[in-house]
Structures are given as structure tokens and as C-alpha cells.
Amino acid sequence: MNEATVRQAAISRTTGETDIRISFSLDGTGQCNLQTGVPFLDHMLHLFAVHGKFDLDVHANGDIEIDDHHTVEDIAIVLGGCLRQALGDKKGIRRYGNAFVPMDETLAQVVIDVSNRPHLEYRAEYPSMQTGRFQTELVREFLWKLALEGRITLHVIVHYGHNTHHMIEAIFKALGRALREAAGIEPGMTGIPSSKGIL
Known about the structure:
single chain, 4-stranded mixed β-sheet
């Protein structure tokens, strides 16, 4: 990757259920402006950006009077698209990233391959179906759509824990750190990190 290359993207998406605008920079400082209408998701995206050192602006209007599902899903779709665009031709990246994050009694691990092969392996069992008003099933929905649209292989494992908030928080912190590692530039690497010559 050329040192002057700016790895960022901005995408808007409007449907009958949501109106989403996201700008995203891989090489940021963790600056955020988050207005999703889903407070718990704002909190998680803030952790993701800070630990990944990504700059992230998210403005979303969705049908949260029904529930948070459409908004959470569509934000992940747009963010995944931004990630794919920001990665560009993927020359020089490390490709793989792995992060363990403890959060008090919880230990979460996220492993990423920027592979152009979207896949999610998700191993997490929460003690409660909600944290605040946020439904825990939406964590998997978010991660799957992020992997699908970002075209990454994503493995998420909560090894143990008993506080639902802590478990999800550890996932998003680890997601940021693993993605920062995978998208980082490998010293001395100038080509595509694949024997196939393409990702």
C-alpha cells in the first residue's frame, strides 16, 4: 500500500425501514460520532472504534418503535460495505488478526481473516436474553452482516463469563483490536498476502 493511500469510505443506505449514513476510516484515532437511536449499540460501536483506532461516524434513523432489529442489521450492512471499500486492494495488509479481551469475569476472543470469503463462527451463550432493552440475539445478527458485507471470515468466542453486558462488551473490544491487526500494514509486504495472488 502506498503510504499516502487514505483507507476510508462513506456509504448511505435508505430503505423503507431505515436511513443509514456511515463514514469510516481504518487509519484513524478512535474518534466517533454515533447517533444510532440504539444506546447500547452506540456504546459498543464506541468501544469498537476506540480499540481499533478507527474513526467512525454513524447516523441512523430506523423503526425502533417496532424494535431495534432493522436498525442494528442495516448499520452492520453499511459498516461492512465501508470496511470492504476502505480495505481497497488489500496489498500489504497482515490479513489475519487475533485478540483476547478480558472484561472482569469474562474472556472473549475474536479471530479475523480478511479473506474475501464471508463466514461467521459465533460461540457465545448469554445468561440473559437482554441487557437493558437490547436483545442479545442482535449481537449475532450484527456480526454476521458485518462479516458478509465486509467479506471477512470472523470467529467470535466467549470462553466464559456470567455478566451479559461484560460478555458483549468484550466481544466488541476484541473485534476492534483483531480488525486493527488484520487490516494493519505488514512491514516489507507489498503484495497481496495470499498464495493465490488475490483476496
